[in-house]
Amino acid sequence: QVQLVESGGGLVQSGGSLRLSCAASGIRFWSYAMGWYRQAPGKQRELVASVTSGNLTNYAVSAKGRFAISRDNSKNTVYLQMNSLKPEDTARYYCYAWGTGYWGQGTQVTVSS
Fold first, then answer.
1. Per-residue model confidence as pLDDT tens digits over 79-97
2. φ, ψ (nearest 5 deg) of residue 9
3. Span 99-104, average pLDDT
4. Helices and strands, counts by H and E, the chain
5. CB count, 10 Å around CB of 75?
6. Are 97 and 2 in contact (CB under 8 A)?
C-alpha cells in the first residue's frame, strides 16, 4: 500500500521559514521523481518544485530563490525548505510520486502579513 505523509506545515509570519517533509512508503522511493504541489482556495493545484531520481531539481518561477527541494533516499523522504515566505504562499501543500498516481493528504501552510 502506497502512502505519502506530509508534515511541517503551520502558521508563520511573512518573511519566515518552514520545512515540509513527505515520508513515502510502499514504493521504491529512490526510483521515483517527487514533486511538491500546492493548492490555494479557489485555485488550481500547481507544481512548486520537483526532484528527479537523479537529484535534478526544477522550480516554479514563484519558488525560485526562496524554496529548496531535496530528498533523502535512506529515509524515503522528500523535503521542501521554504524561506522568505509571503502571504501568497498560503495554500495546502501536497507531495506526489510521479508515475504512481498517489498523493499525500497535504499539509496546510498559512503565511500572515
1. 999 999 999 999 999 999 9
2. -70, 175
3. 90
4. 0, 11
5. 12
6. yes
